[in-house]
Amino acid sequence: MTRVRPSDNQRDRLKETNAFRCCVCKRRSVGFHLHHIDGDNANTVDANLAVLCVEDHDRHHRSGEYAPRHTELKAEEILQFKTDWESFVAEAQRPEPKVLATLSSYGTQELIHSLQLVLQWPDERIAMKQSYHLLDGDLDRLTDEVVADLISIGPNVKMAMIDAPLPVEHCPCCGTGYSRTLKPAVVARLTDPDWATKSSASIYINPAEPRVTILFSLRDQSLLTGSLHLCQGQFLHYHCEGIDDRVPVTDRPSVRTQVTKIVKNVLREWQPAWVFIGTGDPDLPTLLPDLNLPELWEQARRGLKPRKSKSQSRC
Ligand SMILES: [Zn+2]
Ligand SMILES: [Zn+2]
Ligand SMILES: [Zn+2]
To answer: How far is the CA of 15 from the centre of ligand 1 (A)?
Structure first.
């Protein structure tokens, strides 16, 4: 069997029928691979090609190596994801689509914590859920991002807004959602009487790459680590238990100002009693009085800095 590469036309067509998203996780603006579902590289027809992000592609191909009896993402599952998502996008792009969107918010009126967009079929089957954390402190920009996402899937899909924000404990990523249990760190923050006096945030500024990590602890016990890094020079990518958000970087203000704003918002939400900032040797960091981020954040944004080995592409 000779490998047949998809043509540029076919590549573009498939990305379009998937609304420029991975058919499994529905993320967009990430690198995509076209994966041969049946494993036959010669069978390069649309029906056999799935648009996958790099991570989900890995989850399929790597599964056997690391856990021989456990397949993380099976061929049948990929086929199902592809079929479901492509039919949803096709419906969403009709002039009068039958599919719907709802937008819920979490937090309080004064401090919105996150928004969640849910796309569904009329029979309530959910096609996509996406959370947006208000990391950069600008609700209008976040709402614009949600609307742009929805338009990219189907410009005529109607969106219902759920007006009153739900308590942060219900945030689908950080709290119970509708079915999950509260994450221990959220429980501690909400209920532990020592939070106001014995909690701390230790911020570590990586001196060699555009990355900051924040460790929250209570009474010397580590509870939660969040990490923020500049991803592909275009996004500020924040991960924390359950949260995985990419905030697009804008040309102004400086990248470091944008990072500082996100870090401040995270701190504002968690309200630790103590904040420590360090850099240099991660095991014995030099303490800093302020969040003094190195110039390399701007260089990485402008692409002046060559990609740093593996660590920088790690997400
Ligand atoms: Zn994916
Ligand atoms: Zn593949
Ligand atoms: Zn990333």
So the answer is: 13
- pLDDT tens digits for range 280-315: 998 889 999 999 999 999 988 877 544 444 444 456
Q: Which two tokens stand for residue 315?
A: 């997400």
pLDDT tens for 118-132 read 998 888 889 999 888
ipTM: 0.66
Question: Ligand 2 centroid vs 217 CA: distance in angstroms?
Answer: 41
Residue 292 Cα, ligand 1 centroid: separation in angstroms?
Answer: 34
Beta bridge partners of 229: 211, 237
Ligand nearest to the CA of 210: 3
Centre of ligand 1 from the C-alpha of residue 171, in Å: 22
- Which amino acid belongs to residue 58? D
- 């494993």: which residue's tokens? 39
Q: Kindly report the number of other CB atoms within 10 A of residue 144's CB atom.
A: 11
Query: How far away, in angstroms, is 243 Cα from ligand 2 center?
Result: 27
| Long-range Cβ pairs for the range 104-109 (8 Å, 24+) | 104/162, 104/166, 105/162, 105/165, 105/166, 106/165, 106/166, 106/167, 106/168, 106/170, 106/171, 106/175, 107/134, 107/165, 107/167, 107/168, 107/171, 108/165, 108/167, 108/168, 109/165
| Model pLDDT for residues 14-26, shown as the tens digit of each residue | 999 999 999 999 9
What 3-state class would DSSP assign to 129? Answer: strand
Domains and CATH numbers, the chain: 8-90 (no CATH), 100-170 (3.30.420.300), 184-302 (3.30.420)
Distance 312 CA to ligand 2 centre (A): 24
Span from the CA of 252 to the centroid of ligand 2 (angstroms): 39
> Please, how many CA atoms are within 13 Å of residue 205, restricted to the half-sphere of its CB?
21
